[in-house]
Every structure is written in structure tokens, then in C-alpha cells.
């Protein structure tokens, strides 16, 4: 019997942990690394091997996933003292699922090529619940051959993995998606505040929305969060503020995009660690 592909997972935050768990549950060998070691230790109990450095993950695994916060984290993981580029391995597949700038993907793809590795940018749509159930939508930029190699792995993580172009196309697709997410979060918050101002019950408004053509997975989840006053981050507001900055840097400059960008930048200081729907609190202040 052919032995399963060996995988590596770097970045065990809200998203990375459940995604790495899906690979373990599928019976794939997973070598894990997280900057704060405690999160990796938690996965050891579930069958993962814990590596001391990013380079050691690349030494151990054929396909290495990255799921970290931002451009800076990606740069450090590649170019740091014990980063991926310090490994003498070659011919590996590096799959960056973090939401980062198209520019950083171009740079990291180039550095990867220099070491004989393939690089895919493969950011995801969906949050913790979709990560847990393997129902993410994955948008991929990179060479077709690398994509085909990754497809069986993506099948454990998402309901759709779509190659949308060459390097960084996935990042641009993700910025388009998260611009829309910003509109929806702020739109829902503004509708709730308008209804409250006119004495309506939030529960009634949300029931109407859920039964209308406006209903969506996002609005249902965030509507429940508003009702339960649960602002604990499933997707941290500061991460969306970052994505809207990335979109702006890529030329996003349309009327709604400008307003949403500004609102989320203003909300970040007070509500950055809460969920995106804490934009409601900011607008109410
Ligand atoms: P998170 O819970 O904040 O986790 C961030 C991860 O990045 C942690 O493992 C953190 O390590 C690591 N990290 C941060 N800076 C680092 C650095 N300089 N060097 C090495 N590691 C570093 O974030 P998340 O919610 O999982 O999101 C991860 C990515 O997915 C982000 O790009 C986000 O925009 C995107 N995303 C999130 C969601 C969502 O709903 N949460 C949905 C779609 C896409 P430590 O544990 O040491 O801090």
C-alpha cells in the first residue's frame, strides 16, 4: 500500500488548529509548529509530531501548510533564523493558507522556487465552524501541477478548492471576498442599530432577516452572536481591518469599500481582539 503523504502544519491559531486536526483525523502524518509552543503541545496528544522550528517542519513533511496572521508572520517564518529557507530540503510543496498580500506571495513563491519548492497561495473563506467541519472554500493561486498535488489534501479541509490563476491570484480573490464581508458585517450592524433606534426588538428583526432572501450563513451566525452578546473572536476584527488595508493597498477605492475600510480602522483600537461583528459596538459608541 502507498504510504500517505506527510504533512506539516505551521500556525495553530483559531483556524490552523481545527484544520490541522482534520488532516490528523484523515490519518495523515502531521508535523506541527507554533510560535507559542503550548498550542502545538495540545495537538501532540492527538497524534501530531511537534517540531521545534519551521525549518524542521519542512525537513519532515512533503507538503507544509502555513496558517498565520499576516505578511510579517509569513516573512518571519520563511526568512527567520530557523525559518523555512534554512532547511536544506528541496522539492517540497508549501501551501500558504493565511490571508496575506499578493506581494508577499510573489516574494515567497520566488524564494521557494530558489530552493526547489513549489508555492501555492490558498487563502480560505469560512470561519472556525467551517474549518472544523471541512467546509471551507479555498481559493488557490499557483502552478497547475502544484495545485493537482495539493487537491487531495484540500479535500480534507474544504468543500471547494478552486484554482483561480497563477501566484497571488488566490490572495486577490480573498481580498475581494473580505471586502464583501466587511460590507455585510457593517450592513447588518447598521440595520440592527436602525431598528433599535425605532424601538424594534433585535430578535424580531433577525427573525425577519433569517426568513427573507437576505438570509445567509454569515448573517445567521452573526445575528445569533448579536443576540447572545457574544463578541468573542471567531474572526477577529483586527484581522478584517488588516484585510481591508491590504485591499486598499491593491487599489480598492470604491464608495462602500472606502467607508468600510475607514470604519474598521477606527474600530480596531477598542475592538480589534473581539469578533468582526463588534463593529456594532463601535458604531453604537
Ligand atoms: P489567530 O487565531 O490570531 O492565529 C494566528 C496564528 O499566527 C497563531 O498561530 C500565531 O502564533 C501565528 N503568528 C502570528 N504572528 C506570527 C509570527 N510573527 N511568527 C510566527 N507565527 C505567528 O488567527 P486565525 O483566526 O487562525 O487566522 C489565521 C489566518 O487566517 C489570518 O490570515 C486570517 O486573516 C485568516 N482567516 C481567518 C478566519 C477566521 O474566521 N478566523 C477566516 C478566514 C481566514 P501564536 O500562537 O504564537 O500567537
From TrEMBL:
Keywords: NAD, Oxidoreductase. It comes from Hymenobacter negativus. Residues 169-282 form the 3-hydroxyisobutyrate dehydrogenase-like NAD-binding domain. This is NAD(P)-dependent oxidoreductase. Residues 8-160 form the 6-phosphogluconate dehydrogenase NADP-binding domain. Pfam families: NAD_binding_11 (PF14833), NAD_binding_2 (PF03446). InterPro entries: 6-PGluconate_DH-like_C_sf (IPR008927), 6PGD_dom2 (IPR013328), 6PGDH_NADP-bd (IPR006115), HIBADH-like_NADP-bd (IPR029154), HIBADH-related (IPR015815), HIBADH-related_NP60_sf (IPR051265), NAD(P)-bd_dom_sf (IPR036291).
